[in-house]
Backbone:
């Protein structure tokens, strides 16, 4: 079974409240087997508009990645994230 990956690009407006998002999201990430491959850090923007924070999260499957996002646990965290940051999240299937 192919793994699933979240690719998130985020500009944080309130760094203190973003910590609340990180804490609130932890139970969902643990429940769905998330493994963080990239979480912020240095990056090189090559094409298109960029975001200040780039995150890649590996899940056991594409479905697990989608289920994590849609879970009640993550949706609590997502509301916080949406209040304090701007960004995009996509789920892609690994090869």
Residues:
């Amino acid at each position: 079974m192919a793994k699933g990956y979240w690719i998130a690009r985020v500009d944080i407006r309130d760094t203190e409240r973003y910590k609340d998002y990180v804490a609130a999201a932890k139970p969902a990430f643990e429940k769905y087997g998330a493994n963080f491959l990239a979480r912020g850090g240095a990056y090189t923007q090559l094409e298109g508009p960029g975001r200040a924070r780039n995150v890649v999260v590996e899940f056991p499957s594409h479905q697990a990645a989608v289920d994590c996002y849609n879970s009640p646990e993550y949706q609590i965290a997502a509301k916080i994230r949406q209040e304090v940051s701007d960004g995009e999240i996509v789920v892609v299937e690994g090869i």
Q: What stands out?
A: Helices lie at 15-31, 62-70, 72-84. The first helix runs from residue 15 to 31. The mean pLDDT is 97. The radius of gyration is 13 Å.
